[in-house]
Amino acid sequence: MAVDYAVIVVYLAGMLAMGWWGMRRAKSKSEFLVAGRRLGPWMYSGTMAAIVLGGASTIGGVGLGYQYGLSGAWMVFTIGLGLLALSVFFSARIARLKVYTVSEMLDLRYGGRAGVISGVVMWAYTLMLAVTSTIAYATIFDVLFDVNRTVAIILGGTIVVAYSTLGGMWSITITDMVQFVVKTIGVLLLLLPIAVIKAGGFSEMKAKLPTEYFDPLGIGGETIFTYVLIYTFGMLIGQDIWQRVFTARSDSTARWGGTVAGTYCLVYAVAGAVIGTAAKVMYPKLPSADAAFATIVKDELPVGVRGLVLAAALAAVMSTSSGALIACATVANNDIWSRLRGVVAKGGGEERDEVRGNRAFILIMGVAVILIAIALNDVVEALTVAYNLLVGGLLVPILGGLLWRRGTAAGALAAVAVGGIAVIGLMGAYGILANQPVYYGLLASLAVYVAVSLATKPTDPAVLAAWRERLAGRGTEEPATPDPVTV
Q: Membrane spanning segments where (predicted)?
């Protein structure tokens, strides 16, 4: 394992070096939080794909393939569909707003009264996303170094917190680009063909497994529908995703770069399911489906290649963890703390240098994430709660604000409150992992949003006029001229 260890150590050292480089570059709030809004299409595509394809997409995607066959691709596939929908229909308008958070967008659209409540919901989502990503380090470092869970979480979490705190979005962008390359080589170009060959090829896989393993809908229609609601719609409204959209240097970068990233996700989804299916042939009686990735890597790959593929898994976890961490800290500082102090951050125009404050919040949130990850046991339940709150509470007011002119601030606030409370109550009644809470919570949020909006005074025409100006890209600071690193 010495060669494998060397590959991992070099990779981790490189992540820290990128953090140091980013610290020298991030001199303003815009540079620190959204990389100066000047990423070009190639870097934007790579970093967007990196953040959405985390440990759940890699380790979990292979596990679903092990359990259900090719239809196990649906979870990651719906993530790709969500990213495609965001890129094609909404990303250009989002990028033109020149804001830092989803709550700032809601304030612009509805007149400044939705920020704190929506910020709290978004903060809870990004916090739990960061926590669940951090817990995934335990699985990978256990395979690598045979260390206990707590040490693994502290080791992986400390590295991510370090480079994220040092350079903010610039550090995360550069490390994500490296992680994207490592993931592509490790999972798509190495693990996928090796797994299929070791399993005897597709003909041998079909001969040894039940036919339902090759049924595209074998995982079940209701499960697929739930994935669409949670992950496809979740991609449309998550702060971690929007904060990457804010880094695009132009409308076309956001649209086409995101489309490339979404297409990459679809390919990654199928690859994970195929790897899991191959693992089922080789190891038909694993104690857990989620152990399929680590088992096939540990037992079937040659020295050196094994280290690179494990680095790919580590890259997947780190990219999601760092993206969720900076999103969590941005929401905590800009949408909650600043508003409670009576200081509302403004996107565009002249801005104070707030790098130190945002850096402090990343450090504080990072320590909190590590501590919660150590204390928390059930990752699936925590992530389900986060996504249910996000979709049930914020999907309707966000998409309503973008698509329906008659939506009002009162309607948005009512939708957030009713949707969030309904989801929490229904999870208590049906169980956290049940499908009904997000179904009924979303319907309740939609009904209240429409009813309250129609029953209250329309949004001030001046607010809507300012909103349209921002959507058109007018009245905001133009991004700086891109330098070579952004291309």
A: 6-23, 44-66, 72-95, 116-140, 152-173, 180-197, 217-237, 258-279, 308-332, 360-379, 385-404, 411-432, 438-456
